Records
---
Amino acid sequence: MNTHEIREALKASTRRHFFSRCTMGVGSMALSTMLAEQGIAAPTPALTGNPLQPKPSHFPAKAKNVIFLFMAGGPSQLEMFEHKPKLTELNGQPIPESFIAGKRFAFMDSSHRTNLLGSTRAFAQYGKNGTWVSDLLPYTAGIVDEITIVKTCQADLFNHAPAKMFMNTGSGQFGRPSLGSWVSYGLGSECKDLPGFLVLQSGPRGPRGGAVLWGSGILPTTYQGVPLRNQGDPILNLSTPQAVSEVEQRQVVDAVRELNLKRLVETGDQEIATRINAYELAYRMQSAAPELMNTDDESAETLALYGIKDPQESSYARNCLLARRLVERGVRFIQLYHTNWDHHGGPTENLQKHLPEISKEIDQASAALVLDLKRRGLLENTIVIWGGEFGRTPMGEVRENTGRNHHIDAFTMWFAGGGFRAGHVYGETDDFGFGPIEKPIHVRNIHATLLHQLGLDHERLSVRSQGLDFRLTGVLPAEVEHELLG
Amino acid sequence: MLYFSCRLNVARLPFFAIFFAGLGWHLNAAEPPPRLANFNRDVRAILAKNCFACHGFDEAAREADLRLDTRDGALDSGTVIVPGKPDESELIERIVSEDADLVMPPKKSGKELSANEKETLRLWIEQGAPYETHWAFELPKRKEPPHSADSVDPNNAAVISGDHPIDRFVRARLATEDLTASPTASATTLIRRLSLDLVGLPPTSEEVDSFLDATREDPNAAYDALVQRLLDSPHYGERWGRWWLDQARYADSNGYSIDAPRQIWKFRDWVVEALNADMPFDVFTIEQLAGDLLPNATENQKIATGFHRNTQINQEGGIDVEQFRIDSVFDRVATTGTVWLGLTVGCAQCHDHKFDPIAQTDYYRMFAFFNNQDEPTLKVFEEDVDADQLSRDRQTIEQQMAEILKDRADGLKQWEMQLSDEAKKNLPPNVRKAFEVDAKKRKIEQKRILLAASGEAGAEFTKLNVQLASLEEKLEQAATTLVLSERKEPRKSTVLIKGDFTRPADEVTPGTLSILHPLEKSADYADRFDLAKWLVSPNNPLTSRVIVNRVWQVYFGRGLVETENDFGLQGSPPSHPELLDWLALEFIERGWSLKELHRFIVTSNTYRQSSSDRPELVEKDPENILLGRQRRLRLEAEIVRDVALVASGLFSPKVGGPPVYPPIPDGVMGQGQVQRSWKASEGEDRYRRGLYTFVYRATPPPSLNVFDAPDGFSSCTRRIRSNTPLQALTLLNDPAYQEFARALEEIVKRDGVEVAFRRCTSRQPTPDELSILSRLNTLNAARVLLNLDETVTRE
């Protein structure tokens, strides 16, 4: 069928009928009021100046900054925080059908199994409340009096990429802003020479999902996370080209500003003022970011606290130290990704060898970050979050070794600082650690609680797109969990 | 007092007194007139924003058994709204209540009515609470553009008397606010604006000069000729192809976490070619949505169905493939709704739409259209390759070889038996592999391999074998592209409770939204061809409006309907409703020709105005909703690159072909789960337009991403324009831009900085500007030029 034939077919099948009707004229209200009430004048951020300018919160905030230590892949709560003697006792036996009837898991058609797998880790009690922590996390065990451990976190999605998006954006659908973007959008940034939302990575590979995890979705890209890189320029394109001296770079930025100013006067376009500001911030970033990355001014004692042997070498520990330095500089939201926690039992991802290794990579530095922030008086204003996109099943998964499958019914995260309760364990799970027996807390409520501590009402922090008001917490009811707060 | 200024204006222009009937009525009143509340204009938006979430179309979410989206629902109780009697209407009582438990909308919703909104609702009830059909669900109405006696601004002779219908609509509206249009932009600005808008490339200095000469002779003729030249350029299809590819969520990888590369650039080339050929938009629609279903579908029509193959594919381990297939069908429904209907159909995936009359069953009827496809890969051969003939040749040769094989079967057996194990080990791998298969189970290809290796084949067989290899090589050398193909037996489609694919409910058959015109089915079971025809039917009130609006927004930075992807009840009403309808009808009458639509818009004086701000506009219409001027717009990501390529003389004009890999900073590709290689292209492909840069969804090319290029995850109907320090760092330091700067430096050295300035901005620099640039060395002068706001802006 060619174009002509298609057109003929169309003509034959449809009949046009147009009609006209007298239309009402415009009213007599003031134009701006009228347009606003018709919803034509969309609420756009101020056109002038810096879109990351600090903005007032909805109500007084307990915390100013967030450091999210994201354990990408889904760490096994049953090897770290969930002491379950019964599970060990019934090792190898099938899980009662009542637990899993009607449930869906990843790898349903292949390696998913329903026999219980007891943990072989040694657990002991620490801190004032006798909090259980396993031998995988000796340093974390040392800070249980500083943190709130939440055992009953629940998510909706159990494949990595959608689940990571869910934890970061509150939705498994693409195009939603990430937590850090929402916070930058809601509060702006107090840092004058670095972006307001930075992302650091460590581990053998990037997190599944990539840039969308720190993307700004329907918010302007101004609010998206900027990866702070371990190799090459810490921020993409940060270095002045080799053929250009620092003095020349300043001259270039000055000349661009002068010429842009002329154009601003000529056209009256405020976007040019924003661009002039952007060049100034870019220029400041060129010196601020390398200065941030240079840890020569950190004491040997501090480096030892984090377990950093070679401060030049990129590692999770170094990223934790950088996170503290970023908080000192007023950066609003810092996210660390460490891969890979996906311990199914495959040749490179088993519970016996690889889980202890990766636990060692993060344990000391995570604890050191909390302690270091505290002794510098920064923990009060800084929320530290530790956790992954989900946890792992009490049932074993048989591959080359026995491992654990993805699990979203109950998994563990911990929170420190920023008004979260110190020395607290929230929620309890059943004998197998399969599901909560009390106080389940959905990711939505975690998001609402985090925003609350930052002085933001999760129901008010919204952006309009496609005729809808989008929120981090979505349309289902979400609540601030006050029991997590001190 | 704006009212008086309006009145004066109307008094001066008798035609308006008739046209704006409301104002005419006001004029006759002796005292300040009572305000009128018009449902579509004033009331619906208030109800939609504040009430419909709990008292709207979605039955499940409805509270107090009250719906306010229909008159019947609102009057049902007899007390909520009492027409003509606001004081007896509970609605009014509740919205003005100061009791926190009674007030509507409830405090908890975060919504609050302004005093004006409350007054509007009171007036509306007083007038009898009339309801009207939502404007966008009624067919466009043609209204003659108003004639204006004074479209020439007496203070500004440069404003040409506008007889263009667009100008007549726009100026009439401006006049009601006592505003006038801006003067025409300079010829230099015009050629740069037109070139960037129509082909996405800046004009060369020679093109600017010859346009200036021609303009001196006859401005209108020169302008029309320029428009024609640009519409004829093959680069037109590239520039507007990208506009469509945004909506088609095109990218070159599978998305999600693995994000493996895919080949679907043939679809991209199809779009570019279709637009260059000015394929009518209705046909353009049909071929993309249903090309495979057309009688005697051509290869191109099949390629066109790649539109709905731009969905993501999850290759993560342990997934349920059906779940993500369903997700891609959801995406197809949502994208079709957004792109053609400008409706948020996707909202009805889990429940009845909260604001628009779209039931969940409507959604799944649309879903059923897209649930019946297989998702094959199509091989596409070069034009000079006759693949069918090659296949037939191959078949003939294979038959001849099979005959010979039959004859030599015994000889082959003997050869195999006499071979020692040692000798077998020394044979080539493919032969060894064939031996590993039990002799009775060997495939014909394996037998051929063995015979060829045996030395018993004979000259005829050897010749055929060589021919076969060459044919197979030719047949291998094809690009592939993802397409749709209809299944013979449709899959069963059902409503899915809360959009959960594990919770099927009532069975549904393909159908369209019940709020709109009826679907004409060609058979009992409607298919995508029926759907496509339904979308471009002149009885559809939405498609042409939505498309002209989306074209309009590219030229003015804002659509006549600002919510370009939501023409539903929650969307914003058009700023110029008659103009929108007029354009929508013209578009259809001019045979759905996009090129004619472009020509029509860019030849208006509204388009040709200066973009500079004026004090009275800043004061009365800062957002430029009434179009009293043009608007400066930062270029789209790909065009930022294209301008630098052209300015620096590196630009490759090659159109089409596989995506390319311009240099990107080190380490970028390590962000995703799987590290992808990125070997920078050499030669011409290093300097191709941004349109051709390979886009991995999970790790998008930074220099495009930073300028707000869409990520291809879902349909993008309007790009955000951000303005960030990372953009500055890109233009200052990115390796690709360093290369552009070095090339532009050569031009500075050879031809002087003035020439380089013109290559970037199309205009002559002032002495002041030159003196600022003269302080710098040649390289840095070139870098400054590439970094100017003006260079990356269409003025």
---
Amino acid sequence: MQWMRQVGLLALAVALSALVTRPAGADELRIGFLAPVSGPLAQIAKDMVDGFRMYLDDHKGDFHGATIKLIVADTQAKPAAAVLQAQKLIKQNHVNMLIGGVLASTGYALAPISTREKVLYIASVPASDNLTQRDAHDYPYFVRTGWTSSQPNHPFGEWACQNGIKKVVTIAADYAFGYEQVGGFQKTFEACGGQIVQKMWPPIGTVDYSPYISSIKQDADAVFVLPVGAGMLNLTRQLQASGIVPRMHLIGSGATFDEFVLPNMGDEVIGAYSALQYSAAIETPENEAFVKEFRKRFGKVPGYFAESNYTTAMLIDAVMQQTNGKWPGAEAFIKTLTALKVDAPRGPVSFDDMRNPVQNIYIRQVEKKKMFGDSKAELWNVVVKTEPHVSQFWSFNKAEYLKQPVYDRNYPPCKFCK
Amino acid sequence: MSRQLKILAVLALLIAVVVVTPHTTPFLLMLATRILILAILAMSLDVLLGFTGIASLGHAAFLGLGAYLTAILAVRYHFGLGWDFWLVVLFGILLGAATAAVFALFALRARGVYFLMITLALSQCVWGLAYRWDSLTGGDNGLNLPGRPMLGPISLGNDTAYFYLVFGFFAASLVLLYIFVESPFGRSLVGIREHEVRMSILGYNVWLHKYIAFIVSGAFAGLAGVLWAHVSSEVSPEDVTLTTSVDALLMVVLGGPGTLLGGVLGAVIVLFLREYLSTLVPWWPYVLGGVYVATISYLPDGLLGALMQRGRILAAGVTPAPESVQPPNRAKKLEVNEGGVS
């Protein structure tokens, strides 16, 4: 009796999945969108899907003749679940491409599938450097439309040094995302004459930062922060409570002050500097329209998770324009995509030969002000300086840069830490 | 149902699964492969939880060690991608058993909730190693395996071939574990579960029995780890987190502890709800949570336990007394033990 039930369940499942599986139509572009819809990153997933859908809805699901079929799959922020969903999207839903993922581990789990199955994977968020650097030749079907972790921090390090910051203490989350951002900052900051005098690596999800704060070297003049996880709002609060801020400059990763958390932060972050390829406060007509429309639909200011996926949709649309709505195959699609140049909300976006965006990097400062005709003063990442056309290799020689190891906990070594 | 009939029913079910699954959709085939692997893990845990009566919150560690061993050998030494895959299977089982042998030395000093905490702590150590030993494990990024093994002309990269392989390991594990728990040794484990003091007074070395049960459990969990590494061709610290241990525990509790097949049923339900329902609706976690709560509140012996109880009552033609909370399978096994004593 029991096995009959199980067989019945199986039969039901087969029937259900038969409903889901339909052969891809001639002018249908099938997109598998992988996002951590459930779990700790659910809010980020919502921003990602909202960003992509907004562009899609603006164009009524039609990219120059190609009808877009968007299938959102839940990765649960687990690489193994992401792999299963990706395989399902490829083998059962016959998608033309995969988009998304958040964590580097998800990006690294999905990239080999794209190689094995010869399916395009557009990483709109995962930022780990090597996917488009030292490992790029392993993943020919991988294209990034977001950023590499070190990309905004190269110009940021140089800018900080040129603007009077001499000695910096870093407090960054203890994993590759933290290492690569601090590493990028350190490389250019020290090349220009600055000194990183102390590096601290609290684990992801640290809630109480006071042990780290109490050991900050007092002769530093700035503290670089990149907290990740449940307690990420506490670090800046505790820095202010301890008096370190405003005595020292507060600087940090662009992700730390991104608009997806900024509304939850208090006035302690006013004045903080960071760098990223996007800020909701970029004063261009494209961005103003984007921010206003996003706010109207979803009741919040878009951050880079939303912008990156909006721009990804825009890029796909631009490719479809050139192919008259026909799917050209993954190789040709990548060729066309990486030769494009579009004006996104973040500014002009093109690609380097390792399939990573070349884009503006904005040095931003948090200010409380009214923007885009809104009546209430809020926190915004006001652009202080625009560094145009920044590639993942910044001003370095690409071949030499790729010879150095990827930024790590101990690389570059901390010469001034003692 | 008599014992022979039960075995026949399970056999028929297994044959149905192995015949039908490859003809369903690719997704169901991949899902079934994962279910079978996690079913091995759940069954290995059931040896401890259901038969010996000790709940471990650290089974992700053995799974993780098997998986990382497979990944590290494949990535760093290109080992285990041909016929030497069978050696990796052997190493995975041995590593699981050896680690369990070490862990048990610490964990078996305690019982109940303290045992739970020690196993949890030890498995977190393994997670810490996976997360922080960058040079070996790839840290948070995890490790990507170069692909599944080639066994002569058969490529396990083919999902159907890999399903058959996993099914083979699953069936073998089921048979071996069934023989194990039905053996006199397995019976003495049930005796320990029911009355530890009595067993030790009778002259059984209770500690040694538990120790061996723990090692056997670790060995099968290690096997599950080797298979798990190849299922998605990647291993990450996420596989070793507490969530994986809790999942295994819930699968056993959901299906019915002390039944072996209960863990399998639990694995089917949990993975099906999580991976299949999640493709249909965003509120799937509520369904899974509801199933857990309902099972624990209304079917404390798990789904299979409740079914078996029902079947037995129907066969006997009597209605159950409302206050009879003693699960019949336990009562029966206790009788056997006491029968042996008197």
---
Amino acid sequence: MNELKIPRINESIYHETLNNGLDVFLYPKLEMEKTFAIFSTKYGSIDQKFTPLDEQDMVTVPDGIAHFLEHKMFEKEDGDVFQHFSERGASANAFTSFTQTAYLFSSTSDVKENVETLLDFVQDPYFTEESVEKEKGIIEQEIRMYDDQADWRLFFGTLGAMFENHPVRIDIAGTVESINEITHEDLYTCYETFYHPSNMQMFVIGNFELDEISELIRQNQENKSFEAQNEIERDFGVEPVEVYKQEEVINMPISTPKCMVGIKEKPEALEKDVMLENDLVRDIALDLYFSKSGRFYEQLYQEGLMIDALRLEFVLEESFGFTAVGASTMKPEEFGKRIKEMLLQIKDETISEEEFNRAKKKKYGELIREFNNLEGTANNFMQYNQMGIDFREIFETLESLTLERFKNNVSDWVSEEQIAVCMVLPEGE
Amino acid sequence: MQTLIDHKVDYDDYQLHVIQSKKFKTNTISLKFARPINREEVTGRALIPFILQKGSAKYPKERDLRLELDELYGAKFSINSAKKGENHIISFTLDLPNEKFIEGESDLFRKGLSFLYEIANNPKLDGNGFDSDIVTKEKETLENKIKSIIDEKMQYANMRLIDEMCADELFGIRSHGYLEDLEKIDAQGLYHTYKKMINEDRLDIYIVGDVDEEKVKSELESTFQINRQPNVTINRPEVIKPSEIKDLTEAQKIQQGKLHLGYRTGITYRDEQYPALQVFNGIFGGFPHSKLFLNVREKHSLAYYAASRFESHKGLLFVFSGIAPEKYEQAKEIIIEQHETIQNGEVSDEELEQTKRTVIHSLKETVDRSRGIIDWYYQQVIGDRELTNQEMVDEIQAVTKEQVIAVSKQVQLDTVYFLTAEDGGANHE
């Protein structure tokens, strides 16, 4: 295994790409009680149109299928995989994001057995017509739970306003109608295409023996056979630079309105060599202007435009990217208008060296803090590795980021046609 | 497992707890002010965290305060209030990077302490009260927050269940306060409530991290000079038995119904039966292998979530689940049945062992987080019992099936609360 030293914190991760293409990362932290392991595939809700393994033509699968598949991985002929983990006191879980499906456990004993179970259950699908039908009731309740949550509706409303064709606009869990179309054959098609080891990665972090676990994973994978697979063809449609709709309104039975302003990224901001820098620039810009120490925050507060804090998010992926500023607000229209004005004003604002260096200090401290959290650390490394980026470079990128570069970067970031405003309003208004 | 040690130092007016750990890249400092909850003061106390975060004598604006935190390498700071048993707790928490990861920095911890002292002890004043503009503005913030609870269905249902179940008990008081009491609060009266907190509440100070105990003590002694006269005793309520089961239904425009059940266990943190209660909860509904999850979700596909959790200082247990409105009778019956099967002794040896392992795992996992460590020890202050994490593990290990069954017979259903759809779910049939 290769030792990857992490600057600043004096710790190391060990990495190896196995013969079947699986990327393995091991990060021993013997001072911890627990071990967290995550086995993940580069396959998320956006991967709906693709060429299945060994076929020629693109297919389009129902919305929400990656998430549905994630639910069904846990069921096997001899019962539920959760049981095997909990027999050893471990807790298992899984999640589906736009670009990733991940299976994970945390345990404080029997790490070897749990790692083995994790690898084996994800690499042994068992889908039947009956079990697929049974799951529909459960996922329907999951969808309805989200439908009642205004924050969730606001977030997807903003995405739907920003993106015209890109599948990021579609709810990760799909809709009650779309999941009802899913068959067990569909699940196998997706599984066979996206769950090949060369499209996957495994990260283990915490209290375990490095050699023992690395050997176990290698052996486990050598005992299984996988045919070599070509690069998967995926189609995300053609997405214009400008937003689909400048404004979106959702009415639902709530008492407090909400508003979110989204900025769609230009495709050149998502290129691999600028990704880490752009991540930092978005983060620092949000801090300088919209965090509680930010320039615009106080104005918004004084103008009574928000209840408590702002919700700040940014996502940069290979095929899409956006930044969002949202809040619960009694004046949603005004909030949207002001945020939009402020965003457009950023390129004309002057930031001093002092302010910029303080923001860098803050970011540096936050990076250090993130290493407290095993789950977060694993997710950071995997999310970037999936795009071919080594997350460790974030330290160097931060240190070498100058005010000049920051200014240039920010001046290309936002223009009016990239901005969409979404509001969730009480019904009847 | 590593045994954690809480090095306690008793001062006249507060108790210091230093917990040394090499697990973290940051150091956490937490101040916890506690007194028995009462209806007269609770709204004011709920407002205090909002006021104090808006400025102090040295940092007159929120932005000044937040900029200082940025200077401290993005130190994370929060003040919040909560209910523990029948006590109201106001917590100040500051988490700062450990200096050893920052070149040329050796004084961060002391600066952090000074910051905390400033915010807690030198609020921004206006004559003999708080700054009245801040008070007016923050009353509005709290008002809006209280009003928006109804938009968070799970939280709302929990609140309503406790309202009804504990209507005549101190536990029934809402920790975030009441709209009708908010109107009566002014800057002077609120300052008086704050003075009582700072001078008379029980105060516990926690420090967790890779710190030198002697150094921390001397820095704390020189920084924190509050002349306090604590005069409160933690409230440890008498156990109440339910008389008859209350059944309540409320309708709103929602897609998913929330079925919440309140039980009385009569068992609190310092009781001999407390370990058996933890195991009972695990078998009943604490985990994905529990009876509730397996039956409500996996067997009958009625819900995405169905779980239970217990409260440690009042002796309560809650079941919550999100179901289709028309499935109310069936879901309620299945939930009650799961409790009865445990009462009838239907607990397998595997179930018992598996649950004990899972409970122990959760406990170990808790102490991998600095906040988890603080909560774990603070539980002991409120619960009036001292023990190490290893002792707790040993106690759980020793729980027998008979003890679990005995607990299950003591646990009694008190209130069933159902938040349902106005159309009774007619649209979804």
---
Amino acid sequence: MNTDYLPILVQFLIAGGFAAVTLLISVVLGKTAQQRSEVKDQAYECGMLPIGETQPRFSVKFYLVAMLFVIFDIEVVFLYPWAVSFQEFVRDGVWVAFYSMLGFVGILFLAYLYALKKGALRWSD
Amino acid sequence: MMPAYYLEAAVVILGLVLMVMEAFVEKADKSLIAKMGIVGLLVVLVSLFFVSGPAEGDDAPIWSFYAVDPMALFYKGFALVTTILVLIMSLDYRSVLQHYMGADQEKPGAGIGEFHYLPLFTCAGLMWMASAKDIVSIFVALELVTISFYVLVAFMRRNVGSLEAGVKYLILGALSTGFFVYGLTWLFGLSGETELSKIAAALGNDDSAMVRYPKALLFSLAMILVGLGFKIAAVPFQIWVPDVYQGAPTPITAFLSVGSKAAGFVVGYRIMEPFFANHVAPQLVTLILAISGATILLGNLAAVAQENFKRLLAYSSISHAGFLLLALGCSSSTTSPVNVEGVMALYLGGYLAMTLVAFHVMCLVRAQLGSEDLSAYKGLSKRSPFLAGVLLVAMISLAGVPFTAGFIGKMYVFLMALQSRYFVIIALAVVGVGAGFYYYLKVVRAMYWDDAADDQSVQISTLSKVAMLTMVALIVILGIYPTPILNLFAA
């Protein structure tokens, strides 16, 4: 048995246990309030309405924003490890680390200009 | 002389410039984008002759994952020529695109600009893949190609066929990438190296896990073969091909069938090559030959029944993948003076010329006669003798009539297979070639012997005429004098 992986097993147990315990608590606590009414059974706050089409159509703008978010999120994901090792590279005189990141961010910048010009971020209309 | 990777950088920069230009210069005609792309790529194609590899003692990190050898340079040129022709085709295909992009009266060219510069990014990916000799850089190049194809295949957003093709290509492309990268991780896990030359060196070491666990190594190679099988359209991973080829815009179908296939074979050859002289070679060769035989047989026999020209060429593309796989399968046993790289390059070079001519004709016929069915080709010789003539050359070359590039390519493949004594596969291949004569010449019959329904003629621009004539010349020249390509790869 490889003990290095024990924490992962523990995490699985905690995750499963948490789900089981919360479900159990809501069942136990829910029993105390048996008087149901129409109002109580309705969805509240951000819950979805229970009646309607199963596949409602969303505006394509949501997808555009989501895609742009992913792109720039990935950019940051790359920037972090790069920033950590950047000083070391520069100390060794490996300037290619700087120029390659410049190229990467530059391409993303052009893509951003493109998205801006094509109106991907314009919410109205 | 400049380092070879400047070329990829130049193509990417060209693509970015055109992207920004298309977005910000709204008044410009969108076909200008394609024309600038064609000119730019021609310049890059010429500068291909002025590049160099690492200088003596130059150990910059890039040379550990970027090869500059005849194979890399040949397939860079291959990618550039393909992209130039695809851009020329996309000019001829504009009216169809416009029709399916939604007729916006105020901006008639809206959304078409992207169609003209996205192929440049695919081209950069294909060029990088020709040079990639590290499994990470192979994977990144492959993704650049595949992701830009996802967009291009589904480009005609108001055409159900194109959307269906896009979804199928996306799902199967992602699946094949999964197989491919899984195989690569096994290879990395066994060898501990990402550089292909170091993996090859580790094979000679008896302590290496690759030697101690041949089954794991075979599993990894089989996964890589599955992943690449999707890209090159080999049986049993060919099911997506007819639908995607039929639905995608015709220039992109041409690009898929030539560029994607060539890239798959380059990568396959680079990864598999060290293992052909190794303890797993017998099993690996058996696997490749089995796939090859099935591909030749199914591709050719299924093509016989096709009534749609695009689907016919899709099955023809599958069958040619079979012949190329047969060449790959001969790697470990051939003793002929020509080597496998040379034969594959020759075959793919001829395949490029004849396939692109056929798809170019298809673009023009689709744009002006409105159909891709074989019935639309009835009496094409009267509508346009020029188109019928070039398509005739492409078809007889695809079938493999002597004095064409298609014949020479097939002849060398048969020669190598005979030397390697793969008689069963040769028998299957003969059946395939026989079936090929039937369905390729069916097109010729429709063009010359059947009568057209009306007397509408087909207009061809000078640029397209020049492009098609160049390719026809290439077919004939390679068919008579293939030595330059073979010499390029001679050891």
